[in-house]
Amino acid sequence: MLGHPDTIAALATPVGTAAMAVVRASGPTVPAITRSIFETLPTARMVTRADYRDVKAALVDDVVFTYFSAPNSYTGEDTVEISCHGNPYIAQRILEDLLDRGCRMAEAGEFTKRAFLNGRMDLSQAEAVMDLLHARSERALAAANAQLRGALGRHMQVLTSKLVEVLAQIEAQIDFPEENLPPEDRLSVLRQLDELLPLTRQLIATTHYGAVLREGIRTVIVGAPNAGKSSLLNRLVGHERALVSAEPGTTRDYLEEAIVVGAHFLRLIDTAGLNPRAASVEERGIRKTFEQAARADLFLWVIDATRSLPALPSALAGLMTPANTIAVFNKTDISEAAPDAVTQPFPSVRVSALRGDGFVCLQSEIRRIAESFRSDVGDELIAINARHAHSLNQALHCLQAAREKTAEVSLTHIELTSSDLRCALDNFGDISGRIDNERILDQLFSSFCIGK
Ligand SMILES: Nc1nc2c(ncn2[C@@H]2O[C@H](COP(=O)(O)OP(=O)(O)OP(=O)(O)O)[C@@H](O)[C@H]2O)c(=O)[nH]1
Ligand SMILES: [Mg+2]
Fold it and tell me: How confident is the model at residue 434 (pLDDT cuts 50, 70, 90)?
């Protein structure tokens, strides 16, 4: 719980003209403030229509407001949400009036921070709120919703309780230093660690999918100059985003555009053509192509079907695999050539960026590869973010160290093993933000029989 929080207020909807705007306030003085504005404090969660008059009694707007009483609100505090007409001036007047009545302007994320501090959600759920706000595809939305409903938190609870069990078993022996860890205990500790390690690795393996969901699939369009890369981007985006011309070397700098294909969100990146004889500016553009390629999740390799197959620069070929590359034969409207065999082992499609032929196939191929990124993620849609990955990698490191020490027959390391396990536990705790590991331990130890 918070010490003595002040009451915060903020505009909950974007600034701009719209049908509605919502201003909200949260904190201990909300009931008094609500009463002072509306001369009544309605039943919690009841929507009430009223005139909004500022402290000087000037009429501001005809609004509806809802009062939520602690702890049954988003933040866990007394909260009021005021929906006014979506005129930014009105919303601003209401916000300023709330400040005049003693509220403080909320900082970014402060409502959600309070929700976390008041135990309304764990840290991974608080992060999911952000993900939910930014989700740009069906998959990203599903993952954010799963996390918001505690999927990751539950997963971490399972891992944590397994770990606490092992730790308890080991720490029981520290209390009796003269007694060695009996061989059967040692084996059971090893067995439990061998369960924990793959579970931890499995979660870490979802990092890539997590990044793909949050940031979009970084789809880099590469190929020889004039192959039709920019035309392909324009066709996928649906408008003339990139300059197209018959002159090779048109695209000098890379450019990026967001698109949704099926359930997936893609960042489509058009790059400078790979001209082996490029000079100066063009050469610098190609260097940027390589930088983009190094961060790509997916490659669309555009090949001019009217020409012989160009060689791929080795730096690029090293990054492209059948699992992340689609060979796109373009200009099929003027060429029947189908040198598919040459691009093996990449899956390939034939298109005409000019006429739009073959784009249904291309999109379904993109969807197929996008789906395959999910293979590391289990049935329950858990895709961790970079912060989770960091904590899990630290935990994995500690667990591995603990396993090595336990595997040694000499039992002098038992305290070191226990400190490794505690470090893993702390890192697990960081994910959901549960810092009260001591309490979990105390609870477990009280039920753990060590009186032998
Ligand atoms: N016939 C035909 N022409 C195409 C097709 N796609 C692109 N072109 C033409 O090919 C030329 C090059 O197209 P761009 O899209 O600029 O090619 P690019 O790969 O982006 O070229 P650079 O940026 O110079 O590397 C233009 O004249 C396009 O009109 C196609 O499917 N069929
Ligand atoms: Mg181009």
Answer: low
